[in-house]
Specification:
By secondary structure, chain A is of the alpha/beta class. Chain A is 38% helix and 11% strand. Chain B is an alpha+beta fold. Chain B is globular. The chains are: A alpha/beta, B alpha+beta.
């Protein structure tokens, strides 16, 4: 039997919650460890690996020049790169930084020591280096993470569903949040999480990014009909999706 | 065929006994005027006066997600077929949803036959329930002629105040009324009350759209290029709600789910929708229905033309779910009315 693929986990600007999702997977983690050889994973082990990686699993977004250099090096050393979690795949909540002038945000975070810290607008990993697989979500939905890992190990494609969270939500027969008088981003957010939040009584925050071809005008009409403040929706959208603006440039 | 009555006093007892012997699913209130077929043990858990459930009882015939093959690389092409099915009783199915199941029966009996669907069909006992009044303004069951019982069930219940009139339609239904001895013979006065209800319904349940349904295929063919379709496309969010809640939509997507050994796995299918972005996309990224207007048009043609051409059956049951669930307020009845006006011009 050929040796198990060497897999390393890395983190950039993030809360490390997605690593926790993996570490907390329970019994299924044993099956995963039967299929791969984890050579680096800062949250759960001290060992480091000085050779190339078969698969690099990257959490977090790229927010300074040091991170740019580091992710480029990881990319060079990895046959396959998986970006996982919203910070890595779409910029996530770190993208809110891009709402402010860089200087202002640097001072508010580092105060007098600001001059010691460089900063750049928040980027998703895929906006800096080539990414082979995306596992979106804040945090990642563990079944989807496993699905993508298997695709990576087999060298086949994984398509993030390009339809709305509403599709999975309807299949789960949830009462629509709009009927409950709540504002939910399900109609424009990409599915693949099995409507995890709504199944548990919460609204969709749009953490998986937008569908590729949203009907902006139609969505605005719906929002107006439900008497929802457009700024509120804009803010909700930007909470996770601010970095999409970088793609337009 | 035989006719019985079940006194209201005995109804709770009937459901409890039924649920002791069978897996019973009935309409359950989920809040905010939303209902869903769920497992029940007692009559009290059900709401019998209900607006059509979020998704129709088709979920018991073709589950949202199911495995149908198991494989192991060492078996080569010899995959193992699997059917995950269990016997169950559906209580309180409206006539619109029975019409939906009848439509699906035709599709899945066509060759190549769908054995997963057909095995479940064999396992399910259907107990229908008549609507004495309209559920809401979205329904068009009278237009589609689905507001009265017309077969497709094992037992059919009509609420007539102090008692249910019960039509025993199949042997399967007969076995149940024999094993649960709570029914009485239907007498002349019971038939009279049933006829009274039907006479009242003939006055209240009238064609909601003002189009004879037989004319809809022609209207659609003649309004193919209408701008009305573009209006629908401008509104549509392509969320897929209209098709996922439709009692006759049956499209699914298929893929393999490999286990972590990367050698064994299963082939699964999940409901798919012609409204979804990727549905008509092929290798290379080309989509045959890129515009949302074309997808909406396809939905109407599927219900009122293509299936009629192929199976001589309308695939709209008039349940109203698509309009009820649409956040963009795309309304089936209104759309048909507009198309008819344009057609008449």
């Amino acid at each position: 039997m050929s040796p198990k693929p060497k897999v390393a986990f890395f983190d950039f600007a993030c809360c490390e919650g997605c690593q926790l999702q993996v570490a907390n997977m329970g019994e299924e983690l044993l099956d995963i460890l039967g299929a791969i050889d984890v050579v680096e994973f800062r949250e759960v082990m001290s060992e480091k690996w000085d050779q190339n990686y078969d698969v690099a699993v990257v959490e977090g977004s790229i927010t300074d020049n040091h991170a740019v250099e580091r992710i480029k090096k990881i990319r060079e050393r990895s046959k396959v790169l998986i970006a996982y979690g919203s910070c890595a795949t779409i910029g996530g909540v770190n993208g809110m930084k891009n709402n402010f002038p860089l200087e202002e945000i640097r001072k508010s975070v580092y105060g007098e020591s600001a001059k010691f810290f460089d900063t750049i607008p928040t980027h998703a990993v895929g906006q800096v280096v080539k990414v082979d697989y995306f596992v979106t979500g804040c945090p990642v939905y563990p079944p989807e993470f496993v699905k993508v890992l298997k695709c990576a190990l087999m060298g086949i494609n994984y398509e993030v569903p390009d339809y709305a969270v509403c599709v999975e939500c309807k299949l789960n027969e949830n009462v629509c949040m709009y009927e409950r008088g709540l504002t939910c981003l399900g109609p424009v957010t990409r599915a693949g999480c099995n409507s995890w939040c709504i199944n548990n009584g919460n609204i969709c925050y749009g953490c998986r990014g937008m569908v590729s071809n949203p009907n902006i005008k139609g969505a605005q009409d719906v929002i107006a009909r439900y008497n929802i403040d457009m700024d509120l929706v804009q803010n909700k959208m930007n909470m996770y999706n601010k970095c999409r603006e970088l793609n337009k440039k | 065929m035989k006719n019985l009555i079940l006194s209201k006093e005995r109804f709770e007892h009937f459901i409890s006994l039924l649920a002791k012997k069978h897996n019973v699913m009935g309409p359950v209130h989920k809040g905010y005027d939303n209902f869903s077929f769920q497992p029940i043990k007692t009559a009290a858990e059900m709401t019998l006066k209900y607006v059509p459930t979020i998704i129709p009882p088709k979920k018991y015939f073709m589950p949202q997600y199911e495995s149908f093959l198991e494989y192991d690389k060492t078996w080569g092409e010899n995959m193992k077929a699997v059917v995950e099915s269990e016997a169950l009783v559906l209580f309180g199915v409206h006539t619109c949803d029975i019409a939906g199941i009848k439509a699906l029966n035709i599709v899945f009996s066509d060759r190549p036959r769908d054995y997963n669907y057909l095995s479940r069909k064999k396992d399910v006992t259907i107990m229908g329930l008549e609507c004495n009044e309209y559920c809401d303004e979205f329904a068009s069951c009278a237009m589609m002629n689905n507001h009265l019982p017309d077969g497709g069930y094992d037992l059919f219940f009509t609420d007539l105040g102090d008692f249910f009139f019960v039509e025993v339609s199949t042997l399967k239904g007969d076995v149940i009324v024999e094993e649960i001895p709570v029914f009485e013979e239907a007498l002349g006065r019971h038939f009279k009350e049933l006829q009274g209800l039907r006479a009242r319904k003939a006055k209240t349940f009238t064609n909601e759209v003002g189009i004879e349904y037989q004319h809809v295929p022609k209207i659609l063919s003649d309004t193919k290029e209408s701008l009305i379709w573009n209006e629908l496309g401008d509104k549509c969010l392509a969320c897929g709600n209209c098709t996922n809640v439709c009692p006759t939509c049956y499209c699914f997507n298929i893929w393999d789910e490999v286990n972590l050994d990367l050698k064994t796995g299963k082939r699964v299918r999940m409901w798919d929708s012609c409204q979804n972005e990727g549905y008509a996309k092929v290798a290379g990224g080309e989509s045959f229905r890129e515009e949302r207007s074309a997808r909406q048009k396809h939905r109407f043609f599927k219900k009122f033309k293509y299936m009629v051409d192929r199976y001589a059956r309308f695939f709209c049951t008039g349940c109203g779910r698509c309009s009820r669930t649409c956040m963009a307020q795309i309304n089936l009845k209104e759309t048909l009315k507009k198309l008819k006006e344009e057609y008449a011009r």
